[in-house]
Every structure is written in structure tokens, then in C-alpha cells.
Amino acid sequence: MSSSPPLYIWLGRAPGAFDPDMEIEDVPGTADLDLLTAAIMDGKLGTILPSRIYMSTHQSPELSRSIRTVDVGKLLRDIGVDHKRCYEITLPE
User: Fold this and answer.
1) For residue 19, what are the contacts with CB-CB under 8 A and spacing of at least 6?
2) What is the sign, positive or negative, of the torsion defined by CA atoms of 61, 67, 71, 72?
3) What's the mean per-residue pLDDT of the chain?
């Protein structure tokens, strides 16, 4: 296990407003996107992903520059993963 702090992951929810949905090991010398890709391919994030994933080395980031936003569709296309795009709508009650 690495002594580095983990990468905190938010699945489509605003970092800072919500606790992270999960964390993955931050391996020194490995790009964050590679770590996220490995977590996706290992099924750690499930099979239904939001359109955006947020990552930070801070559990409660206060500055937007400490948050990385990942376009999941683009990432999946870039790594050659077949996927479907779906939208969930929230109707007023």
C-alpha cells in the first residue's frame, strides 16, 4: 500500500458539497487518469457511470483548481471501451 494520500472520487456529485463516493490508491509516478481508467476497468466504479467524474487528492476540496473533472464518454472513447449513453431525468414532484 502506498503512503500517498488516496485519490477521492465523486460520481457526478459536486465535490465539497458531498462526501466522496469512493477513494482509490494514488500510486506515485502513475497518472491520475491511468489510475481512474484502471479502477473503471476493474469494475470498482460499477457499470453505470455518470457523464462526469470528479477527482481530488483532498477529501473536502475548497479550491476548484484542486478538483479534476473527467468527461467519462471521452475517456471511454479514448481507451476504446464500448459503452452506451443514457440520461436520467428528474421530474418535479
Assistant:
1) 59
2) negative
3) 90
